[in-house]
Amino acid sequence: MTFVIGAACVDVMDRACVEECPVDCIYTGDRMAYIHPTECVDCGACEPVCPVEAIYLDADLPAGQEDFVAANAAFFAEPLPGRAAALGSPGSAAKVGDLGVDTPFVAEYGK
């Protein structure tokens, strides 16, 4: 299991979770943040600091938000809009910086 960021994060870029993560595995897109599924060590430090309670273990994601598991994984595994290659596992969100782009699912979410 890994932690996943759900719908409540869309358009709320508080970044408390990013600052709290001891392994720097929370990357920021344009409308939300994403937890790298293999870089995350499941410590749970991010969950209690999220002001909108958007972080869940993937198995505990609220009903109707299951697509966010795939969106979080796709952020790293598939080329993002405007990019030729997938982000992969860069090992450090700080090294990469704000990416300013989201998966197509998140980019269109709620519109």
UniProtKB/TrEMBL annotation:
Reply yes or no: does the keyword Iron apply.
yes
Q: Which cofactor does it need?
A: [4Fe-4S] cluster; [3Fe-4S] cluster
Q: Which InterPro entries match?
A: 4Fe4S_Fe-S-bd, 4Fe4S_Fe_S_CS, 7Fe_ferredoxin, FdxA_Actino, RnfB_subfamily
Q: How is the cofactor bound?
A: Binds 1 [3Fe-4S] cluster.
Q: List the keywords (alphabetical).
A: 3Fe-4S, 4Fe-4S, Electron transport, Iron, Iron-sulfur, Metal-binding, Repeat, Transport
- List the PROSITE patterns: 4FE4S_FER_1 (PS00198), 4FE4S_FER_2 (PS51379)
All residue ranges annotated as the 4Fe-4S ferredoxin-type domain in the record: 31-60
Q: Which SUPFAM superfamilies match?
A: 4Fe-4S ferredoxins
Task performed by this protein: Ferredoxins are iron-sulfur proteins that transfer electrons in a wide variety of metabolic reactions.
Name recorded for this polypeptide:
Ferredoxin
**Species assigned in the record:** Nocardia rhizosphaerae
